[in-house]
Amino acid sequence: MSFKTAKFFMQAHRFALGMVICLSTAVATAQQAFVRGKGEGPKKEVAMQKAMERAWTNYIGSLPDEQGAKVDTLRANKAAFLDELENIVTDVSVLDEKCDGTSCSVSIKATIRETTVNSILRQVAKTQSGGSATAASAGGPLAFLVMARMSGGETKFDNKVTKRAESTVGTSGSSASADSSGGKGGKSTDESADSVSVTQTSKTVTGGSVEIKRDKITYVPYPGVGDLEAAIGQFLQNSKIKTVPWASLVGDCNVPVSDSFSDIFAKSSSGSIPEETKRQIYDRLRTCGVGRVIFATISVDGFRSDPNTGAPMATGNLNVQAFDLTSKFVSSLGTANKAISGRAAVELDAARNALSNASKVAADMIIQQLNQN
């Protein structure tokens, strides 16, 4: 092997080794987060424990909006994570410590080991999925319908201003008078006159009203609602919840295709489908033996700039309603709302990301509602 060839292989080896180190560092960074916390107590050990708990709370608060479902799960299962706090809050460094014998205050910085957090989340999901499967099967087959719309524009109204003015004019004063008399054999006139005094006043009153009309958002149906349905169905399947695909209900139960509902939802001023349409769905699903139905409506209402990056951020709302069809009268199993958001380089991609994020959140909300019933 020549010197040049050997040198080439040595450089290639260093490059490959550097890539491995960089990739390992990137993976490690992606699986941990850095936080701070402060705690107080009668002893240093108690203050340290409080500081670690505060660091954990600060970590939950730092999670972005699109991880809202994860935040809800972390808070709902607080005890499970506090039991493993020493394995979650690691690499603890004391930044400040003040103890005077009767009280102690400790400030720390630490690392949140997200691989441990995700492992606990999976264990929680397994426990919940067992309950969810039982709950879902107890009510018979489960059907869910997704409706999605996006802001297609906004009509802005100027304030309507109506002005009016009223004027009043008044006059006051004395008029002139004269007395005349004629004598015999000649003409004599005796005239007297009061001086004329006239005063004129005017008064103007102005007023008006302002009529403010709210800006109106126009919506268009989201064309990829089938992808959202598939994503939610996959999330539910992973949690061992069996659902009846809406596409199969179209042929078997004679219900309208899901795209038509998104069109109705986009045109609805109240953000819901008409009650008469819902009743028709209930009747047809009951005929097919479907015991429960869930409506998920997703709206992307507008866009704004991300305060951190300046990139477009789509914001909107997710609503989930669950109904039991097994009794004579339809009963509500629950309803839930959640704000959603998505970020991207352009607005359309930001809206798609917001809708995609909503799919996972919707599945988590469905699971939670089934667990409660």
Note down, in words, how this protein is organized.
With 373 residues, this protein is an alpha+beta fold. The protein has two domains: 107 residues, Acetamidase/Formamidase-like domains (Endonuclease I-creI); 176 residues, 3-Layer(aba) Sandwich (Rossmann fold), CATH 3.40.50. It is 43% helix and 33% strand. The chain has eleven helices and eleven strands. The strands form three sheets. Strands 4, 7, 8, 9, 10 and 11 form a six-stranded mixed beta sheet that branches. A three-stranded antiparallel beta sheet has the order 1-3-2. It has a two-stranded antiparallel ribbon with strand order 5-6. Strand 9 and strand 10 form a beta hairpin. It starts with a helix and ends with a helix. The N terminus is likely disordered.
Notable traits:
Rossmann fold; Endonuclease I-creI; 11 helices; 373 residues; six-stranded mixed β-sheet; 2 domains; disordered N terminus; three-stranded antiparallel β-sheet; alpha+beta; flat
